[in-house]
Amino acid sequence: MKRVLPGFGLSLGITLVYLGLLVLLPLSGLVFKSSALSFAQWWDIATGERALASLRVTFGASLLAATINAVFGLIVAWVLVRYSFPGKRLVDSLVDLPFALPTAVAGITLATLYAGNGWVGRYLEPLGIKVAFTPLGIVVALTFIGLPFVVRTLQPVIEDIEPEVEEAAATLGASRAQTFFRVLLPGIFPALLTGFTLAFSRAVGEYGSVIFIAGNMPLVSEITPLLIISKLEQYDIVGATALALLMLIISFLLLLGVNALQWWAAHRHHRLNGGAL
Amino acid sequence: MSIEISGVTKRFGSFTALDNIHLDIPTGELVALLGPSGCGKTTLLRIIAGMESADAGHVKFAGEEATHLHARERKVGFVFQHYALFRHMTVFENVAFGLRVKPRAERPSETEIRRRVSELLKLVQLDWLAERYPSQLSGGQRQRIALARALAVEPKVLLLDEPFGALDTKVRKELRRWLRRLHDEMHISSVFVTHDQEEALEVADRVVVMNHGKIEQIGSPDEVYSNPASPFVYQFLGNVNVFHSRVHGDWAEIGREEAQTRDAGNVVAFVRPHDIEIENAPVAGGLESLVQEVHTIGPLVRVELAHGPELVEVELTRERAATLTLGKGQRVWLRPRQVKVFEASAWDLEDGGSGI
Amino acid sequence: MSTSSPRRANAEPRWLRLTLTAVALGFLGLFLALPLVAVFTEALRSGWDNYLTALADREALAAIRLTVFIAVFVLPFNIAVGVAAAWAIAKFDFRGKSLLITLIDLPFAVSPVVVGLVFLMIFGAQGLLGPWLSAHEIKVVFALPGMILVTLFITFPFVARELIPLMQAQGKDEEEAAISLGATGWQMFFRVTLPNIKWGLLYGVILANARAMGEFGAVSVVSGHIRGETNTLPLHVEILYNEYNAVGSFAAASVLALLALVTLVAKTLVEWRMRRETEMLAATLAPEATGTSTGNRS
Q1: What pLDDT does C2 receive?
Q2: Smallest CA–CA separation between C186 and chain B, in Å?
């Protein structure tokens, strides 16, 4: 078909070649490398004691961190959109700090803050709460890393809520709480879930910010990415590859999940608007 | 420059946007492509401009094959529905764009560009806005700048996609008249797309009525209005009362002479509301009806009447209504001045509805 | 963000507003502001002299140079491919478009450690191309080329992701108008498209740059940690930290934190510009411009 606008072949060609050579080919290289393993061998490595423990730590901490982010992210997004207070714009810009701050910097800083003699740790330690060098430290690091996702996904959605909807609910006799939980929350729920999933999927793969604060005790506070690295350092290429493939599959599934969620949110929105767009 | 379109067909997937279109546009005419949304009018315009390619058929400019010419080479002025002004350029630079991108050999000098642009801005009466940006203009001003920009490259054909669609009613009317005057001065073949029948009838030399990817009728504004070729055209150009002969046997009788060869049971009669006369006393062939509502709308009086279960709409002048002194529930007789009869099958294809 | 003063019916009671604001600010203070302050405090703990000495260290300077070099090398690729991908996706319809969009996002989803490992598996001594590379004495992993490759991988999505929605919102009309007025493809691109997307492009570049300079996991796997040679600034931070050189480590970290602050400021400024552009776009599409439409109509 003839197209009026030029450059379709060129731009799509560049994109596909680049994507193929830089992203898809290397990733399929990993799959190819691990095909040396039988499924049973692969399964043995993936469910070995240390691997399973690391997966439990990784996913448990990520889930907890994403949940914390969902709750506080909703409050932060609401406050930033709806209320005004001095310095709001500054605070709003600061939300992106975890995107901009290199993870290694975040890692050493959090480790220092939450260590027994750190600014925060020294108040928690007497209460019997140890954060640095425990799984709890991992949750702290992952909460930092995932913080912008929920806030940034929710903000535009909250901004788009038409005030009339709330006014209608109020005139129909709903209390503010009823309005929020019955009218507003269902509307922003898909975005909340998307933000949660984004934060979760980022947390699962995170490495830099975690290793400094985690303590990295095998079976206790060792995350899967770190286990991959230590297998590599012991020249256990097969083991590292097997775990990497597992992580790759998981991240692929999470990516598909995010896409499905976004499609769902868009579709729902579409339908609510009577399909006009 | 004349435009000849022959056998143009365009499909989007399984949807046929244009079905074997034949259309000749003589030099210097102002033609309206009129139809409801989705009828293919914009697709046809884009095919003429070379923005879209047809699956089959030919487009010729002044008798020369243009089907495979790229949009860049067609020397066509195209005015977009939402104007598509370059938002990062001033009004002046917008109009100058077509001159500035010409190959070095053909490009006019800077002084010549300045002269031509200010001439065009004067033509559209907006020379005082030259240094503004598109976002600082009103809709009507943007529309005129878009037109000046299209005219800058001295096109042989001017194509306008819903030129007044995004404007409010008052500005629309002014621009309509202004475009007509401009066309009479410049005299280039122009085609514009519209879904507004009033616009097409007022501005165009000829109206092409389209529906479902086909041309329903081509004719002067008066022709298509007073002598519609199909029930669709009748319906689309203004209000109409539809009478099924089963229900209104007498009225189908009135149209009998026109429908001599047709079976009386299978025809549908179309009558415009202003082509019906209301009488206070029985007349031959008159339909006995009861007045339901009387609304005065500006210079007109609109009367809604019930004939049995059917609703009939009639428009009268204020003077006529005053002599009738119509009241709710009053019994009157309706007499058509002009009836057009179509076969019922042609009507059923379009719509099963009952009139207005 | 429009500073909204909610209408009466939509406002929470005052005590709830204050509580929610306090909770939000407390959370952000604990997780964002406190670490940011801590970086600089730790870096300056033993005075400016020690701080500056730590920064002037030969290896620290080498790390800074390498970090900047990689970013400068990688960004042009990001720009070219990002614009190409956005052009194809936003302006044309083709089969498999949504799959392509998903694949462009893929580098965001993959763990940095896995990215590093993937390139190790291909270019490393035991990798697919390893024997061939060592036979030709080409070093990819544990050397600069490998670090550039993983950085290209990691930063690939930023520009495209920023441009796709922007270019979709802008539509094709202006480009079609340019073509119908006789412009060639490149004239159209440089005179119409590029001016329209420049802020979005800059935004994507800022984010990609921050990531390129700050990347740790993936680069760590392929760098080999050769001091003074394949150490980027984030890797340098790690090494010093593990050697219990807190001042040196936080001094290097403070440079990166400063970079993050510059990124945030630049990002905010560009966002502000883009919001104005969006308003301009909305105004250009709206039936009537507001304010200046005093009309001398014929």
Answers
A1: 41
A2: 10
DSSP state of A221: S
Mean pLDDT in each 10-residue stretch from start to end of chain A (277 residues)? 81 95 89 83 88 93 96 95 91 93 95 91 89 92 95 92 81 81 86 92 93 88 92 87 90 87 73 42
Closest CB from B84, B135, B178 relative to C176: B84
pTM above 0.95, yes or no: no
The answer to whether residues B278 and B333 touch, using CB atoms and an 8 Å cutoff, is: yes
The model's confidence at residue B346, banded by pLDDT at 50, 70 and 90, is low
Tell me the ipTM for this assembly.
Answer: 0.89
Q: How far is A4 from chain B (nearest CA, A)?
A: 5
Q: Do C38 and A113 touch (CB under 8 A)?
A: yes
Residue C210 inside a domain? The answer is yes
The answer to whether A207 contacts chain C (CB < 8 Å) is yes
Given CATH 3.40.50.360, say whether it is the number of domain A56-222. no
Terminal-to-terminal C-alpha distance of chain A: 27
User: A interface mutation test: which of B52, B59, B74, B78 has the most A CBs within 10 A?
Assistant: B52
* Half-sphere exposure of residue A204: CA atoms within 13 angstroms, side-chain side: 24
Identify which of A5, A110, A232 has the shortest CB distance to residue C176. Answer: A5
C55: domain CATH number is: 1.10.3720.10
Rounded Cα distance between C97 and C103, Å, is: 10
CATH tag, B239-350: 2.40.50.100
**B71 contact residues in A (CB cutoff 8 A):** 4
Predicted local confidence at residue A277, as pLDDT: 33
A1 to chain B, any CB pair closer than 8 A? The answer is yes
Assign a CATH topology to domain B3-234. Answer: Rossmann fold (3.40.50)
Residue C296 sits at the chain B interface (C-beta within 8 Å): yes
